[in-house]
Amino acid sequence: MYKIPVSVLVIIHTVDLQVLLLERADHPGYWQSVTGSQNQGETLRQTAVREVFEETGLNSTLYSLTDWQVENQYEIYEEWRWRYAPGVRFNTEHVFDLCLPGITPIRIAAREHLNYIWLPWQQAAEKAFSSSNAASILNLPMRNSIRNNF
User: Fold this and answer.
1) 70 vs 54, 67, 107, CA distance in Å?
2) CATH code of the domain covering residue 44
């Protein structure tokens, strides 16, 4: 069964903008936020909730999960294209954030990640290997400000 070329990026952060990054097991040194492909029949929100739980053990429904209504399209790395139907080269990523009251212990998925780290948002943006992940992290202060003004 091929993966659907639609995914979520979920930036998990605290109220004071400490950002959680996960180190990929298949690429040591590659740090990222929670990501994952949509399953057949899932809404994007359901995908985000599932991926957060699978990758961190956190229950997103207990916190503020926000759909930014932002899409990033990027070319799928050639080494991972075998997961998709023949001829699929691009993925559409939908950005969410999950705001926690403070730094929370997590349970990483050992088959997917080697380690995790909480960093201030600027450092997290610098460490994220994906340009769309880094750009989204850099938008957190503005997004957080908007959320806090409502």
Assistant:
1) 23, 8, 28
2) 3.90.79.10
